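Supplementary Methods S3. Input chains for the assembly prediction are listed below.
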Amino acid sequence: MNKRLLLVLSLAVLPTSAADIEPDATRIVREAIDHWRGLSSYTEMTMVIHRPDWERSMTMRAWTKGQDQTLVRVVEPKKDRGSGTLTDANSMWTFSPKVNRVIKIPSSMMGQGWMGSDFSNKDIARADDIVDQYDHTILKREEVDGITVYEVQSIPHEDAAVVWGREVLKIRDDYVVLEHAFFDQDGELVKKLVSLEIGEMGGRTIAKRQRMVKTEEPNEWTEISVNDVVYEIDLKDSLFTLSNLRNPRD
Amino acid sequence: MNIVLRLAWRNLWRQKRRTWLTVGAMVFSNTLLVFMISIQFGMYSLMIDNTLKVFTGHMQIQAPGYKDDQKMRQTVPAVVPLASHLREKFQMQTIAARGWAFGLASSEERSYGIGIFGVEPEFEPQVSSIPGLVKQGRYLRERDASEIVIGAVLARNLRVAIGDELTLLGSGLDGSFAAAVVDIVGIFESGITDIDRNFAEMPLASFQDMFAMQGAGHQVVVGAETLDKATLLQPEIAAALPEAADLVVLDWDALQPGLKQAIQADMSSAFFMYGILVILVAFSVLNTQLMSVLERTHEFGIVMSLGLRAGRLGRLVMLETALMGMIGLVLGAIAGAIFTTWFTVNGLSIPGMEEMAANFNLPARIYPEVTPWTTVAGPIVVFLFTLLAAVYPALRLHRLHPVEAMRTH
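Predicted structure tokens for the full assembly:
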């Protein structure tokens, strides 16, 4: 098979992947998010919250559909089993079986830690705001072990409801995000999400283990590991409803 | 009576009106000083008392670092036994254990992030003014009831009333989901919007249960009778802590650093004003004494040619001033004390000050504090500056030539 044929074939199979044209920054970011979420997905993951004097591990199941809908439910520890959050567009609801109530997280609390982790509620809910509400430019392009890595700088629009001054992403040419750094309005690095392990899962190459670290507290971090993932499955819209958050039917 | 003293006294009344005018200036400034200093210190002790009475207390036992980070995990273990041990040991009721956590409070309609205190219902009223400020409903009663009291602004924001349920969500000590449904039994109104909007109190045992505290809390609040006693009590409390415990005792200045700074800033601006007042009085005395020396040039020339030395004359002038100053001091202090005491009984309210006063946790009506110190401090300073003002006229006498002086009329 000659190289040209391979290229044609890959174009046919992966219509969105970069060919020999220079990809633009916005598309790279969009592709990276689509690559991570798929049109729909089901994920089993473990979240470890690490502090100097203690550590907490949680197992969770997550469903995503489209760009807006996400449902996350805690499996372990037993004490918190059934607790979960539902996000739709930029809204987030949380459910605790202890009080059997669904509560909408007010926008003033979106900057707070999600389930006590170093991810904020906003990190979980806003996922793809970065595509529409930011301007993207490629800062750098480098080859690492034969893979092209783009360094993309994303600056929020003037009117975007975002606390960050800019974000810098390192994205491989297969749309795996290696690094996602958040800078405040003064240009200081606030926190950074780093992919620690990249591998094949659910038919895609994805970041299997990611760690969020705040610059101010280098000894405190939260790690999310993907244990299992299935992409492009058929998920009903009724999955992403408040009544399903309260009474799971899965 | 000493001849110089008698002379001085007589000289003073040679120009009755002038003397009385100068004394009047002194009395006026002294009265003003007594009044202002009394108000000022009355205000400071109110500021300290009222600020500390809300939550802080005179001192707190906390885990090291808690004051700055306020992290859930910086706990005081077995906080209730510790508080009751201290109450017994010091025979004081003004010691109470507390927990503090950040949480989300939700009514049917709305949610707000608030600070939740877990308190001992029977002892919290001894260390905090909040229980006494419950305007609707009642304060907490039982240690483990699912009850809560919230601020009036928060109640309005959440659109809830007494008897409604509130859902609380937060993170427990072990990182677990903390959740509870509680009944609103009371609504407090401190008048300080920040407090009325952002805080709620629930019984400590329920708090510990909800946040999986395992008997721990975050602070033991200690109130003393007075600020001075608090200073003495602090090392005793520190010594009474269990030896193995890694805890610190912080005084009110460490807990509320802004308070002392605000007082110091106010104090320096006030003392600047007093300084100006005192200097004005001193210049009026200087003017009077200079005039009285100059108009007596002829007379001084005669007594000097008779052999009286300039130094003796100078002392005479100083003595005149001292006598005048003394009259001003005594009358001023008395007038000031009477005037101010009237306000200690009736209080003083300045129209339009209410809002500013609320910022400093002050009531709209201020009661000055009359002590011997506030009464004499100002007048004594005025007296000293009066003497200082007489130095120049007295020294001028040394340059007087008896013959030339006798020629002036």
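The longest helix of chain A spans residues 25-37. The longest strand of chain A covers residues 217-231.
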